[in-house]
Amino acid sequence: xxxxxxxxxxxxxxxxxxxxxxxxxxxxxxxxxxxxxxxxxxxxxxxxxxxxxxxxxxxxxxxxxxxxxxxxxxxxxxxxxxxxxxxxxxxxxxxxxxxxxxxxxxxxxxxxxxxxxxxxxxxxxxxxxxxxxxxxxxxxxxxxxxxxxxxxxxxxxxxxxxxxxxxxxxxxxxxxxxxxxxxxxxxxxxxxxxxxxxxxxxxxxxxxxxxxxxxxxxxxxxxxxxxxxxxxxxxxx
Length: 237
What we know:
- The protein contains seven helices and nine strands; from the N terminus they run βαβααββααβββαβαβ.
- The protein has helices at residues 9-31, 42-51, 54-57, 83-92, 112-127, 180-185, 199-207; strands at residues 2-6, 34-38, 65-69, 71-73, 135-139, 163-168, 173-178, 189-192, 226-231.
- A hairpin with a 4-residue loop joins strand 6 (163-168) and strand 7 (173-178).
- The longest helix is centred in the N-terminal third of the chain and has 23 residues, at 9-31.
- It is globular and about 45 Å long.
């Protein structure tokens, strides 16, 4: 895993936006498209807002990008808790994307478990049976979770499904998420986590014993294609 430690968040966000733009150019040049799975939260929000500015929006071929999500709260798309709503408001409504290239992780009048199966079929239709995303953007919670892979949940043991849904009792809501196997297949992974509140979990993930039941981010394999953006506070420096 490649770790980059930043002095300030503006530089971190700019480097993340540059990384997205560069990868999109490379992928579209080589394959004719760019397939991504995006996360919610405050860190991605700032990156999305930057990508929607003139500096980036005009040089990215948005109509050749396929947008999936890493995970989602099972709430309607207009709910303020929706990751998709945030992404539309900060990015997708501001750039010339193709509507049929966007796959929100929510659908009305269906159970989350059933839609998880349907969502996996969408991924297979676009990516094929290998299921390799060009780029996945991850965040990390203070407890060391990523996507909707929370400590102690059965989903951490999932080895076959690419998408799964379950009821998260502490939050009293259903979550739908990509699983570790499909995340680990991605050609490029960028995780963003910063601030003092992340310090304990990040130290355990990087330096502690392997215990993904407690720190699910450890399920993401520490390979060369896994880039981690953080700051000095999160690193305890």
